[in-house]
């Protein structure tokens, strides 16, 4: 029976090419937009290179201090000393890395200026992240203890800085702001959409201008805590908060008197929402609601248009419906026939959308609009797309099918 429904649907598609084109255009365009959005969100918040362990990582990005009246607040990243004392000492964590936000710097090749993003980090940075080393190796504890002027650079910086970018550069020097550093490794870079690991050059935290010697609580460092397993995240968060509670209150920092102190350790998505959107309680649900509303609008509006097209297309087949009813076809059978037909048409549009999405993703990845972009249609994105196709087919097929199936035999034959 199902194969017959599909055969009928195929014949209907061929009967009116213009209506078929309009229908498939609406479906494929909508699904392409949805798949691109899904792919970008997966690229933004999913566990991808070089942050492949996000599912068991916590991010400590900001210290917030408030006065007793909650009228004044100071928020900043933390000092290396603070994170060493309260994050590095965690016993429930597998590993903790401390590193700086990337910040701007310059290098020169002759008279040409190269704008750079640089990061200062400890040796554990390379163990918590999963960078691919094209040449050499990362700096280690010995390099840091020795105060070595060493650097790990990205393949993109190598290409712009060295005349012969195909030759190995490990052991060569790069001059950054009048200081020479020896290159000990070259990595495939991280996209700027992953701000915790993005940079052009990575230095040990003991390198000049890192300001790791700050003795106060605030500074320009953040931390990434890696749990042994995703199930251990709550235990790690609990231990970290126990450490923070050891800080005596009230206190004074840089002339600011505070009575309330908050340092969060959150998974990436929660940290992203809280930091980027300056979120408060309930923001996560609000954001999900907004995303859900946008998706509903993207699906609902085209579905309404397709309902109208489908009603017109189905009513053209009123005589066929009347004949089938006259021979005893039940309402349920007729409804399922048209729903299956609509889902079949939607899946054809879904296949077209997959081809379009794949093509557009390749264009985005190779265009250089987002450096090191690695958008993909992975299994998760593909599964969501299939589910969307099914929902879309049902949304635009149920109402016309219900209206059609309730036509009386006389009305159908007259039409």
What labels would you give this structure?
48% helix, 14 helices, 415 residues, 15 strands, seven-stranded mixed sheet
Descriptive report:
The protein is elongated, with a radius of gyration of 29 Å. The protein folds into two domains: 176 residues, no CATH class; 202 residues, no CATH class. A hairpin with a 6-residue loop joins strand 2 and strand 3. The longest helix has 37 residues. Helix content is 48%, strand content 19%. This is FtsX-like permease family protein.
Short description:
The protein has 415 residues and is of the alpha+beta class. The protein is 48% helix and 19% strand.
Secondary-structure blueprint:
Layout: H1 2-15, H2 17-45, E1 57-60, E2 63-66, E3 73-76, H3 80-86, E4 93-100, E5 103-109, E6 112-121, H4 125-128, E7 133-136, H5 141-146, E8 150-154, H6 155-161, E9 173-176, E10 179-187, E11 201-204, E12 221-227, H7 233-244, E13 251-253, E14 256-258, E15 260-263, H8 268-276, H9 283-315, H10 318-326, H11 331-367, H12 379-395, H13 398-405, H14 409-414
Parallel strand pairs: 6-11, 8-10
Antiparallel strand pairs: 1-12, 2-3, 2-15, 4-12, 5-6, 7-10, 8-11, 9-10, 13-14
């Amino acid at each position: 029976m199902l194969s017959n429904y599909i055969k009928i649907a195929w014949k209907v598609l061929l009967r009116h090419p213009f209506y078929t084109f309009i229908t498939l255009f609406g479906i494929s365009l909508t699904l392409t937009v949805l798949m691109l959005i899904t792919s970008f969100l997966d690229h933004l918040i999913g566990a991808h290179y070089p942050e492949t362990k996000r599912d068991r990582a916590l991010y400590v990005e900001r210290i917030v201090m408030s006065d007793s009246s909650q009228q004044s607040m100071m928020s900043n990243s933390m000092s290396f000393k603070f994170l060493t004392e309260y994050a590095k000492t965690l016993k429930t964590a597998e590993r903790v890395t401390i590193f700086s936000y990337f910040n701007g710097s310059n290098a020169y090749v002759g008279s040409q200026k190269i704008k750079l993003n640089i990061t200062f980090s400890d040796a554990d940075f390379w163990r918590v992240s999963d960078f691919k080393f094209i040449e050499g190796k990362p700096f280690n504890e010995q390099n840091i203890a020795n105060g070595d002027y060493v650097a790990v650079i990205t393949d993109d910086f190598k290409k712009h800085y060295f005349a012969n970018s195909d030759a190995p550069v490990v052991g060569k020097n790069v001059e950054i702001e009048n200081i020479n550093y020896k290159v000990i490794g070259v990595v495939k870079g991280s996209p700027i959409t992953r701000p915790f690991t993005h940079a052009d050059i990575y230095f040990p935290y003991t390198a000049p201008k890192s300001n790791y010697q700050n003795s106060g609580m605030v500074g320009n460092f953040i931390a990434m805590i890696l749990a042994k397993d995703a199930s251990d995240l709550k235990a790690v968060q609990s231990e970290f908060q126990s450490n923070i509670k050891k800080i005596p209150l009230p206190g004074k920092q840089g002339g600011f008197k505070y009575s309330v102190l908050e340092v969060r350790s959150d998974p990436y998505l929660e940290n992203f929402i809280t930091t980027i959107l300056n979120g408060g309680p309930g923001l996560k649900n609000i954001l999900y609601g907004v995303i859900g509303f946008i998706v509903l609008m993207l699906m609902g509006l085209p579905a309404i248009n397709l309902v109208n097209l489908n009603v017109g297309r189905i009513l053209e087949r009123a005589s066929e419906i009347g004949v089938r009813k006259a021979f005893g076809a039940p309402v349920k059978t007729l409804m399922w026939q048209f729903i299956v037909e609509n889902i079949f048409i939607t899946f054809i549009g879904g296949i077209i959308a997959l081809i379009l999405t794949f093509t557009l993703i390749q264009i985005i990845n190779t265009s250089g609009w987002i450096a090191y972009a690695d958008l993909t249609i992975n299994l998760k994105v593909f599964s969501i797309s299939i589910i969307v196709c099914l929902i879309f087919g049902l949304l635009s097929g149920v109402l016309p099918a219900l209206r059609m199936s309730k036509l009386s035999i006389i009305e159908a034959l007259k039409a």
